[in-house]
Known about the structure:
The structure holds 2 protein chains of 2 kinds. Chain A is of the alpha+beta class. Chain A has 26 helices and 21 strands. Chain A has a 6-stranded mixed beta barrel. Chain A has a 6-stranded mixed barrel with strand order 12-14-19-16-18-17. In chain A, helix 2 runs antiparallel to helix 22 (718-755). Mean pLDDT of chain A is 77; it is low at 395-406. Chain B is α/β, with parallel strands linked by helices. Chain B has a domain at 30-42 and 78-223: 3-Layer(aba) Sandwich (Rossmann fold), CATH 3.40.50.300. In chain B, the strands form 2 sheets. A 6-stranded mixed sheet of chain B has the order 6-7-8-3-9-10, sandwiched between helices. In chain B, strands 2-1-4-5 form a 4-stranded antiparallel sheet, covered by helices on one side. In chain B, a hairpin with a 2-residue loop joins strand 9 and strand 10. In chain B, 50% of the residues are buried. Chains A and B meet through helix 15, helix 23, helix 24 and helix 26 of A and helix 1, helix 2 and helix 3 of B.
Amino acid sequence: MKTTVKPALPWSVASRIAWREVHASRAKFFFVVLSVAIGVAALTGVRGFSESFQQTLLTEARTIMAADLSARMFRQPSAEEDKRLNDLSTKGIERTTVTEMVTMAWLPENPQPLLISLKAVDPTQYPFYGSAVLEPSASLKSVLTDSSVVVVDDLLVRLHTSIGKTLRIGSRDFRIAAVLVREPDRMSATMSLGPRVMITRAGLANTGLLQAGSRSGERFLFKLPPTASSIAQVRKQVEQILPDAQVTDFRESNPALTQGLERSTGLLSLICLVAMVLGATGVGMAMRAHLQQRIDVLAIMKSLGARSSDILRIYLFQTLLLGLAGGVLGVIAGMGVEWIFPMVLGKLLPMRPPLHIPFRSVLAGLGTGVLTTLLFCLPPLLDIRNVRPSLVLRRTVDGGGGEARLSLWQRFKNSRAEGVATGIVLLGLAGIASALSDSIVIGKWFAIGLATALIVLLALASVTLRALRLILSRTRLQLPSALRHGLANLYRPGNQSAAVLAALGTGVMLILTVFLMQKSVIQDMKLSASPSTPNVFLIDISTQELDGVRSLLAKQVGVRGQLETLPLVSGRITAVDGVPTDQLKLANFPKRMLQSVALTWADKEPDGVKVLTGKWWNHGPVDSLAVSEHSAQRLHLKVGSHLTLVSGERTLMLQVGAIFKSDGQHVYGRSEFILQPRDLVGLPVVWYGAAHVDGPKVSAMQRSLFAAYPTVTVINIADVLDTIQGFVGQINGVIRFLAGFSMLSGVIILASSVASTRFRRIREVVVLKTLGARRGHIVKVFSTEFLVLGLLAGGVGAIFANLLTRILLHKLEVVYHVDWRSGLVAILLTAVLAVGTGWIASFHILGQKPLEILREE
Amino acid sequence: MIEVRGLKKSIRNGTRTVEILKGIDLVVPAGEFIAIMGASGSGKSTLLGLLAGLDTPTEGQVLLDGTEISHLAEDELAQVRGRKIGFVFQSYQLIPTLTALENVLLPHELNSSGDGLERSRNLLRSVGLGDRMHHYPVQLSGGEQQRVALARAFVVEPPIVMADEPTGNLDSTNGEHVLSLLLDRNRETATTLVLVTHDPAIADRADRRIVLRDGLILSDDRRVNHSNEDHR
């Protein structure tokens, strides 16, 4: 007998059926579209917003360097180098030179000289970012001329002079035009001796101080046009042109800032991913509920000869339609978010809405919306295959039938396709997470963590429900009717309590993880930028003066905490791993810097220093030293490398025992080579000090210190520190705000998940009413169900949130502490939320007329 | 006694108003067994629903033992239903999450005080389900589920039992079993029994047969000298 293969349902027919079904159930599908839209809105809007926020922060980071890129060297560039640097300007890259040197200055009427730190700039260009703040207020360009200087307050104190008076530098006299209150790149500049005097480049040339062999440092500052290729590329070019220059870009300008940026990038990616997964979960759940309600229609279609693939075609089209609708809505909402947030937050953050429609992120948002909708609808769609046409003839009690009583494992075993679908969903999720995440580490861990957590959550939810059922079966007849009924409802046939519990638990887990992460990260940032962080550095304190300076500061008003001190011994590096320094091949590291290195000692790990590799004193046959990550990279040092140092008459053969990173906030953050105390005993020492002095009191402190110890220089970085703290504050604010946004999307998903069981509840309410139940009783029954579901989901979610946070914080090198209170609040809030949203989603159910059920019969 | 005066019910279907019951007058004395018949869409189930206070009429009154229930508040109506009416549905309508015993116990817990547990157990035994008390509905056959539903309808000893096609989903053996349990109840405790059916054989066993057509009573036949015993 010949069999003919039945042709597949044409797409045109499938799309017509799908469209009619969507049209007929507009209200129901609104939730699905909303779920997709929230995910997509978070992706396009929040992501776009966070990108522009980060852009703002990067601009802030640039001000700390006053440029995008800086190259520092101790010689004038050759004609060839100068030409090649000038070639860069054809690409729109601007350049200005800053010359720094230590020299003497005095008043013409009093020839007592003062060591000053002279900085020559071109005021028409310097600074590229930020501004030099002067007192009286004026722009640097208008005040600084070839015959004038601006000076820090410290110089006026030391020389007993004032604005308008004359200062002699080299062979020229300059008028003191203003007080230099703030210099944007103060922290990037050399921490040199003496108060700062700023002069024009022509002015410096006129002094005659700049001669061949003079100890001046040159810094080239570069500003990239907005259209320039990446900073990394330009940096590479500059490094090639000036092989012995130390090149840094704004991303390295300050450890607190860079770290803040890295962490906020990671966290913001996480928040976007959370919103996306929550949205997708909502879609998956809504689609499952929808198909359950259509089970009769599916059975009818099958009994009329439709194959599973035909039906799948209809619902696949429907899913695509919904995904696309949600995607479009989400993109519109997302763009709204991107435009509105900066306006709302304008006072807090110096941000402007984007001037163009970001087509790339719009497409990415749409694509992700459709893709996640498809992925998360895949398992319920595959369930279509299991619908038996016989359902048309014999309807079981509640649609779920005997299948509902199979265990999760049995169901998983029975349905290999479901297993494959789950695998595809997880893989797809991992792919999307990796593509979206700016931080690969976060993306990878998020995907792995989420997949593991989902599997374990499902298992745990299933075990919890079984345990509760066991307890219930022992005690049920002793329990009050409403409580018993409410608890029993968790096991409603066809009710996927374990899946709902896992989904809610996942939501709680994700939201709580974001909360705990931001809390810990912010806590960590606060610690590293605390109000007692030193903001004043004292330079050139002799050992004899040290105790006196310390007690003077202790008595001074406005000084917080103790004076942090750093002993410095001057030395030079003569060989690295046995290779003499003159034979070393060092790229982008001025060898002259090896001739004068500051050595210090510490017997244990000092504050603000964190060992990255190695140990803080590895006691071996050769004494160890610890090297900063920065120096280790440039000198190609590893733990175990040998270093030969000479200080005075002493030659030290040392081995690198540890490589450390400093937070840039403590005085030891300024050290590059930390030795064991015994290696430096007896060598001439000068001390650096650092303290926190309340802003307005700095001047008074400076004056009394100068009176007692006139050779000690004070460098005030309070303003720069304020910038950094303000910046950290902004990050905190935005992270909290966006975390709140993802929590809001969680609430909506929770509502939709409760709403998805609505059709089963209606039937139950009607039966209960027919049997004489009053509203109060029904309220108690359902409230118990929602409450227990919320408590369980909250509990399970809280446990996993803590585990996930612990893993993620470990990756971010932030300390984790169990936060019991947040966990408890999360559990209670989930319960309250579950009851609240449960009732919002079920409100109309209570008003159902019992007669409806008779009409169904 | 159930008394119905000028009962009308219409529903809106989109822009159209459909008149389901067009004016029904009816008196059902206590202890009577009446069968309501009629074609699909004739208004049988709507009439039953209005008699039980499951919906409010558009016009007219329903009085249970002299008390008008048509316009009672929702909770008062639930109370009346719970105490006075036992309901049996065609597709059983058991609460799937509760065991057979708990399903039977439920109306008692909702409407009466005191311990209904023993009475529920006895009722389940009396319908032949003494060994299925702790089973869930899904674990029971259709006939067993309907017998649980009967026990549930009887547990508060209501003066009226209303049944909507109670044997419609059952095979003849199970159907007969369920019907005889209902008739026993009607005979032994003088419970008023209002039964909607399509089956003329079942209607023949009633004291009175009401036939509806297009929302009106087409015929109301009371069997003269009828006694239940004749049919058993």
